[in-house]
Design brief:
By secondary structure, this protein is mainly alpha-helical. About 50% of the residues lie in helices and about 0% in strands.
Length: about 80
């Protein structure tokens, strides 16, 4: 995994862990947000936090319960998020 991807993954993992009290060992690239027990309201909040913290536009429609962390990391990288 490239260093930028690793840094971004660590940053997003930290955000999810801190904001939603999800143990970091549960936050894996293949985990869906449903697996992490995040509901639709939490996803709206997550989109807002990611947008603020990473300075990229993330709509609440671009993050769904069945998305994996890996898919969202790809989306963030495509939008130019830096680690």
């Amino acid at each position: 995994m490239p260093e930028s991807t690793t840094g971004l993954r660590e940053r997003v993992t930290g955000i999810i862990s801190d904001q939603f009290d999800v143990p970091s060992e549960r936050i894996r690239p293949e985990a869906t947000f449903a697996d992490l027990d995040l509901d639709s309201l939490a996803l709206i909040e997550l989109a807002a936090v990611l947008e603020e913290e990473l300075d990229v536009q993330v709509t609440d429609q671009s993050v769904t319960m069945n998305d994996t962390l890996g898919k969202v990391l790809e989306l963030l990288e495509a939008k130019g998020a830096a680690s």
